[in-house]
Amino acid sequence: MQNYLKNVKFDENGLIPAIIHDLKGNVLMLGYMNDESLKKTIETGRVHFWSRSRKKLWLKGESSGHFQEVKEIFLDCDGDTLLIQINQNVASCHEGYYSCFWRKLKNENWEISEKKIFDPQKVYK
User: Fold this and answer.
1) What does the domain layout of the chain look like in residue ranges?
2) If you classify domain 3-123 with CATH, what class do you get?
3) pTM for this one?
C-alpha cells in the first residue's frame, strides 16, 4: 500500500468525495474517487474519478479534451474528503459551463448564474 493511502478514509463503497477547486478560487465540481483513481491522479497529474453510475474509472476530459491538471491535493482533518486544486482546461461542466455550480437560488427559484462557454452538442458528438 502506498504510504499516503493509510490516512485516506474511503467510505463503505471504497469511495472518497473530491472537491475540485481551480487556482482562480472557484469550486468547479465534486466527484468521487476510489484508491485506483486517486493513484492514477497522482501518477498522471490529471484528475481521474470513479463513475458511480457507469461503475468505471474515468479521466476527466477524456471525451471533451477539457482536462484538469493537478497542482495540489489536500486531505481534510477527518481524512474523508479530498480537495484538489487544478488548472482547468476550458470548462468542467459537461453542460457547457465553466463550473458545475451554475445554478443559484434566488427568490425560491434556480437561476443560471454563468454563461455557457461551449456548446455540448459540438463537443460530445
Assistant:
1) 3-123
2) alpha beta
3) 0.92
Residue 80 has pLDDT above 80, yes or no: yes
State the Cα–Cα distance between residues 124 and 29, nearest whole angstrom: 19
Nearest to 94 by CA among 49, 63, 115, 70: 63
Sign of CA dihedral 56, 71, 89, 24: positive
Short-list 98, 90, 94, CA closest to 115: 98
- Number of Cβ within a 10 Å radius of residue 84: 21
Cell for 117? 462557454
Q: Please say whether the beta carbons of 82 and 17 come within 8 A.
A: yes
- Strands in 27-33's sheet, in edge-to-edge order, are 27-33, 16-22, 82-88, 68-75
